[in-house]
């Protein structure tokens, strides 16, 4: 990343940019740069996983957030996601004791236009060296609901609160991941 220098107002104002990226999921300035770097890394990892015969998919996890503060959304998503990771890893090990499951994940936030209510959700890449069709047999919605309940979340979930899509290098989901 190149450092940017700007001189404005006839030399009276000077600014420097691109010195660092912040860690906030809400920062609109750093989001695209961070996303670009992550996309490049994921592309390399997914290409290598495909060459090694691994299965991969993208999973989006969410919950109903009409009136819930964003800090609570994050708490429930984090707790339930940890449980989901364990359950998916257990499932892979059940097929093959040498199985490994890898997760790359990030939070994403969107805001409702009418009142700017935040809606936090997780995007995950799941990669496994287990059975190539391992992810195909999982009821992600049912599993996600169980994890949310175990995490203490008692609110509603909708029919696509956990959406899984296999990653093929030429698919729309791949284009979304690498954007």
Protein model, in words:
The chain is α+β, with helices and mostly antiparallel strands. 37% of the residues lie in helices and 25% in strands. The protein contains four helices and six strands. It has helices at 28-51, 70-95, 140-150, 172-177, and strands spanning 4-8, 13-17, 55-61, 101-111, 118-128, 162-166. The strands form two sheets. The protein has a four-stranded antiparallel beta sheet. It has a two-stranded antiparallel ribbon with strand order 1-2. A hairpin with a 4-residue loop joins strand 1 and strand 2. It is flat, with a radius of gyration of 19 Å. The two termini are 18 Å apart.
Can I get a quick summary?
With 179 residues, the protein is α+β, with helices and mostly antiparallel strands.
Shape: flat
Count of helical stretches: 4
Question: Could you spell the SSE succession in H and E letters?
Answer: EEHEHEEHEH
Which structural category do the helix and sheet elements fall into?
alpha+beta
How do the strands line up in the largest sheet? 4-5-3-6
Question: Main β-sheet, in a few words?
Answer: 4 strands, antiparallel
The tally of strands reads: 6
Q: Calculate Rg over CA atoms.
A: 19 Å
User: What kind of oligomer do you see?
Assistant: single chain
Mean pLDDT: 79
User: What level of helicity do the residues show?
Assistant: 25-40%
How much strand? 15-25%
The first-to-last residue Cα distance is 18 Å
Low-confidence stretches: none
């Amino acid at each position: 990343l190149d450092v940017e220098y700007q001189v404005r107002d006839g030399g009276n104002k000077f600014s420097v940019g691109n010195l660092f990226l912040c860690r906030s999921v809400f920062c609109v300035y750093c989001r695209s740069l961070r996303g670009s770097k992550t996309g490049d890394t994921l592309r390399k990892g997914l290409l290598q996983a495909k060459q090694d015969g691994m299965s991969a998919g993208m999973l989006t996890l969410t919950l109903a957030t009409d009136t819930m503060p964003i800090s609570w959304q994050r708490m429930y998503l984090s707790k339930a996601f940890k449980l989901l990771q364990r359950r998916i890893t257990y499932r892979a090990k059940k097929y093959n004791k040498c199985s490994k499951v890898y997760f790359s994940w990030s939070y994403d936030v969107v805001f409702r236009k009418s009142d700017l209510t935040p809606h936090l959700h997780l995007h995950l890449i799941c990669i496994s060296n287990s059975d190539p069709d391992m992810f195909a047999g999982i009821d992600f919605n049912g599993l996600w609901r169980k994890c949310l309940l175990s995490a203490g979340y008692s609110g509603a979930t909708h029919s696509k609160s956990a959406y899984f899509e296999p990653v093929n290098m030429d698919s729309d989901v791949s284009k979304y991941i690498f954007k």
